[in-house]
Every structure is written in structure tokens, then in C-alpha cells.
Amino acid sequence: MTADIPGGGTEGSSDGTGPPATAPERERPALHRLAELADLATPMAIRAAATLRIAEALDGGPRSARELAAVVGADADALDRMLAHLAGKSVLDRDAEGRYALTGLGAALHADHAGDLHPWLDMGSAVGRADLSLVELLHSVRTGLPGFPLRYGASFWDDLATTPDRQERFDTHMSRDIGTDGPLIAAAYDWGSLGRVIDVGGGNGALLTALLRAHPELHGTVLDRDRTAESARIRFTAERLKGRADAVEGSFFDALPSGYGGYVLSSILHDWDDASALAILRRCAEAAGSTGRVFVIEKIGGDGAQVRTEMDLRMLVFFAGKERTAAQLAELAGEAGLKTVAVHPAGALAVVEFAAG
């Protein structure tokens, strides 16, 4: 195969650096931009570098590809070619001796970087692994079905449950957002007035911990899968919240414990199609009864009318889920017998409050 992508250095152009000679001159910028958007080589090189822990291997200073290959377990020539490409994209620096070093951009590949991109890029992590199923987007668009099971032979959640280490890292990654979002969510509502809340699908308890810290009169429970519920118990013990917080094993598709003032669904519904999301809301509505509240916490956009299209495609391919606007959430909730009470802004998130209709 000798022809390059149009706009990215092309057979047929006079100098080998532009679109085919037959393309009008004015189309070159557009073709180049489209070629950049469609490129898979650079995204996969970045992900491969993150998975190989190239950033960590460069902590001690510049190294040659041969030295790096010995550290990360790679073929020296193939690694050199990949790193040279990343140097051309300013992810790495390459000196006259062929040694590589991190740039400011490349430093974000480090697992300990504050930007927390590594779990998204590491192909061995739950999210990085799931992102590879985006190659099945065509299947999802044609059928409306998730692409993840087509690639891996199981749903995202069943696949995750087979690897405890990956599950633990996923829970940790999900909880890191709470470091920023937790205080905003805690300040968005008078959670203490509810007495007790249950965080349905609440992971390792990071959000509930933030709520309890901000509202000393509040008590709460996390409901999640067995391993995750145990992680929440460990967190509550470490945070000295054992008297105010507990965790139970269960599924939001089954009957939920009654008697809580609030039922919290934080970044849950976007993982599911409408039928499943409705089933979850119905379980919460049943348990909340006439006096409880149901809180859906999602990134619905600043005005409640826009969705994040890139994440929306991920939800489609991973789960057949979707990002929803406030209006779409209200419509689903209405089918579950709930009405919207208020939408409480919480930074990029919104806390949508529902009550029995």
C-alpha cells in the first residue's frame, strides 16, 4: 500500500506533502483537517505509550529506544518508530543522539499526573479497554446495540467482573472525579434534611463520603455489587464514618430498601438504554414512596438542553446507553411515576430532583 491519506502526504501530489494533484487547491486545508480527524495512528500510538508506561520509564531522564524497550518489554525498532511519530506530534522530544524525553504534553501520560488521563488511555484499564470497542461503532449505528459485547463476548459489566484488579482500578478512577465534583454536589442541595440517603450503584463510597463530610447530620448507605460494596465498607472505616455509613450488596434492577429520604443515582442512567433506565427509576420510585426523593446526577449541559456528543457515542457503543437532556430525563421519570421538583447546578453536573408524581 503506497498511497497516503489525502492531506497527510499523498501519492499524486507534486511534493508528496499534500492532497492529490487532482484536488482543487482550495480543498487542501479541509482535506488535511478531515484526515487529521480520521487518523487512527496517533491516537493508538498515544494509547500504546500509556499502556507501556513510557512516561514512567522516562522519569530518570532521556533514554534511547533500545534502553526503553528493555525496560517496558518491546521490540526496539518498532518502539523507536512509534516514539519518533510521537516526537513529531510534540508528545516527546528526540535529541540528536536519538534519545527521548517527555514534553509538557507527554507528561500527562504519567499514571500519577493530576490530569488523570492515564486510566482513559491505558488499554489494560476498564475504560481504555472499552474505548477499543469504538471500532464497532458502525455495528452500533446500524443496530442500536452495544459494540462492546461484539468485540469482547460479554457486556462491559460482566467483562469487568471477571477481573478484580481491573474492577478495583475502575472504581478508583470513577471515584477520583468526586475529588472535584463531590464538594459541588454536596453544596448543591441540603442533603442533611433527608436524614438518610442511599447511593444506588454508589461504587466505593466516594460520593457518599463527600456528602457525609459536608452534612454531619446525614447518614447513608451504598448499594452496589459485592466486591464494590466491600470497597465502600473499607473506605468508610478508613474515613471513620462507620457509625454513619454502611454498604449493602444488591442490584438496582431488584427491589431497593425502603425508608430512605433520598435515592441517589450518580452517573448511572447514562450507562443504560431507555428501557433499562426506566426500570432503574421505577425501582427507586417504588422504594422512595410518597415522601422520598430521587436524585439523578448527570452531566446534562449548562442549560440542561445539550448533551456531550463524544461521550454519547461512547455510551452507545459501550452499553447502548445515552447522554440525556433534562427534558429527556423528565420524560423517563414521568413514565416511572416521578415528577421533576428542581434542577440543582453542581459545576458541570446537575442534580435533578424528582418526587412522586
3D structure, described in words:
The structure is a single chain. About 5% of the residues have low confidence. The protein is an alpha/beta fold. The protein folds into 2 domains: about 70 residues, Orthogonal Bundle (Arc Repressor Mutant, subunit A); about 180 residues, Vaccinia Virus protein VP39 (Rossmann fold). The strands form 2 sheets. The chain has a 7-stranded mixed beta sheet, with helices on both faces. A 3-stranded antiparallel beta sheet has the order 1-3-2.
Helix content class: 40-55%
Morphology call: globular
- Number of discrete domains: 2
What is the arithmetic mean of pLDDT?
92
Region (Disordered): 1-25
GO molecular function: O-methyltransferase activity; protein dimerization activity
Keywords: Methyltransferase, S-adenosyl-L-methionine, Transferase
Biased composition (Gly residues): 1-11
Descriptive terms for the model:
Arc Repressor Mutant, subunit A, single chain, 44% helix, Rossmann fold, alpha/beta, 7-stranded mixed sheet, 10 strands, globular, COMT_C, 3-stranded antiparallel sheet, 357 residues
Summarize the structure.
This protein has two domains: 41-112, Arc Repressor Mutant, subunit A; 173-356, Vaccinia Virus protein VP39 (Rossmann fold), CATH 3.40.50. 44% of the residues lie in helices and 15% in strands. The chain has helices at residues 28-38, 41-52, 54-57, 65-72, 76-88, 118-121, 126-131, 137-143, 148-152, 156-161, 164-187, 206-214, 226-238, 274-288, 309-319, 326-335; strands spanning 63-64, 92-94, 99-102, 196-200, 219-224, 245-249, 262-266, 293-298, 338-346, 349-356.
